[in-house]
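Worked Example 4.2. Consider the chain below.
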Amino acid sequence: MGIRDELRELGEGIREDFVQNRRVMSYAEYLELAATRPHQQLRSAPQYIRDCFDYFGVETLQFPWGPMRRFKLFDCEWAGGRDRLVGQEEVQNRIYRALTNFVNEGVSNKLVLLHGPNGSAKSTLVRCMGRALQHYSTRDEGALYRINWIFPGQKISRSGIGFSGPKFDEHGSGDSYAYLPDDLIDAKLSDELRDHPIFLMPPDRRADLMGRMLAEAQTGEDSEADGAGAEAARAGNGAAEAAGQRPTTDGGTPTRADFVLSDYLRHGRLSHKNRTIYEALLASYQGDYFKVLRHVQVERFYVGHRYREGYATVEPQLSVDAIERQVSADRTVASLPAALQSISLYEYGGEVVNANRGLIEYQDLLKRPLEAYKYLLTTVERSSVSLQTATLFLDLVFIGSSNDIHLQAFKEIPEFQSFRGRLELVRVPYLLDFKQEEKIYSEKLREAAHSRHVAPHSAYVAALWAVLTRMRKPMADKFPKKIADLVARLTPLEKAELYGLGKAPDALSTAQSRELISNLRAILRESDSYPNYEGRTGASPRELQVVIFNAANSPSYTYVSPLAVLEEIDELCKQTSVYEFLKQEPLPGGFHDHRKFIDLCRERLIDRVDDEVRASMGLVEEIEYERLFQRYVNHVTHWLRHEKVRNATTGRMDSPDEAMMREMEKTLEVTGRADDFRADLIAKVGAWSLDHLSQKPDYAQIFPDYFKRIREAYFEERKKTVQVAVADLLRLVTGNEGVLSAESRKRARTTVDNLIARFGYNDASARDAVTLLARSRYPG
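Applying the procedure from the previous section yields the following structure tokens:
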């Protein structure tokens, strides 16, 4: 295909896309579209943004403290996951709840203020929303429309402003100038405020029309739902209902039996400029409404931050967020019909105008001088902003961000009480789950490393250290005495692993562990009502990103090493005059002891390397642990039911093997009554099975701590063998394999190959990991 042919094909594709997306239409055509899709076309900005959340779907994530809904919008799948939001599921749900409240009240009457420490992903969260809106507006489900005014040239005009030219019905638009080519147009006035096209309908008729549109659409949806329900019942297919899917109409737009018409659509009016044009045309045509509509072109627009359409950001400098300019000062007026040249027309600009019918973000709102955002009180409350010549009525969701320091200072001034009723405060703390934090640094490492190999656990040590710096000493007096002592004994590392893994300290009994984990949500929330809540202070992901990038370019390693990350963290800890969290005095229990946290992270790194090396030795396959534990669960199940169990060797029905069960419970370091432990174990298996229907229980996933203890017990029995194998491995990776026998060299080489294939090392990172392990755990 030649360049010209390719260009022609491209042009045809763009034209076809233009027509299919209904980029331009007459007013009559738009009303027909609105009648067929009223739930889509009669949405306010809060409804539109909430539907955008719904459009991308949700998933339920399981955390140690319970399930949490996550909106897939924040995964940015349409952009390949680029700049996605990691964690902050609770914040997502708080924003969604605020949007739902705006929808139910019929007006967006509060500014959603995200507050938290610097670097807690407030801006990332809003950017994800804005980028999702941009993508959503390109889909059929997210189509948005505004109006333009078209004024034909004199060649198709009889005189002045009165037009009675040919009918343009090629597109079924009737007597409309919407499809006029540019060479037949003298002037085109766009609506920078993007008034909803329904505003051209007189208010007294508009409410009745919209009500009928919604009622007829709902009747059709109910009929379709009844038919679909009967069909599904006959087919026995309840999958969609079981999945909690909402019914959808044409184009996949969610339908709502409780759809709320917003105040903006019920009571809104045309902007000053549009109203002036409308009235001038109506007077010129002697009240002929249909002739006025000939000049209306309904145009689809797309949300775009770059071009400030439906999504704008207000930076924290002193500025005016809405402006006006007289059109008469522009040469455009010379092309207008005579009846419009004698009146004053104004066009509007500024961030508030640019964002209308979408989302406006106020970055670091409270950094601005108070006078710069006092207007927000009335703007948010009344959804309007007053200028010299007109009051602009808005359809907007206001969202802002602030760090906690500025918010706390703002609360101290008298004006705060006036603002408090117009603010929806949403706290955005640092993450307290190191597994989520690890995802952030894993992505940053891929960016920083370029072609360099990234060794396992490089992101893990950074994430664990960052979360440890955020741990707050528990307030035991807030808990019942039954668990107060358990909470008081938690160290920063134990608390971090409790949040991230749901793992209770090893020193606790089974009953104590169960009691502690059952109160995990309360422990997580214990400081929520305090100004210095957990997650407000500590290392910021921004600071750790600098650590990551420095480690990725460390001259001491040919790859990205977790040891390099720890070395860079050590350098960071020396900058006590730069970072506020480093100025904290260590507390009893090890809290805020940031240098000690480096040693803890190194120990956890060695633990992981130890597990991987021992697994790579192949002394026992992982499946053997699974079989051993499965046999134990099988015998416990029959023991609880007072049933016999089939002997796999003899085929006879025997009593459950009490000796085997007690031996396993000794290995698992069970304290307390064995009966209670066994009943609790089977209950956990049952609970997991309810959440994972039709799946075979994954005991390693359900009981990771038990499997670790089984491995530890196995290798404790064979510690001497492991020590010899590690010594051989060290000789191999350091180039001293000549002293090894052929068999020992082969075993060591197999271990290295397994480290590379199963755990993601390369030769250099495997060498350093084995050296670290041998010197730390198996000296001599």
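The CA atoms of residues 199 and 270 lie 6 Å apart. The longest strand covers residues 144-152. Compare this with Example 4.1 before moving on.
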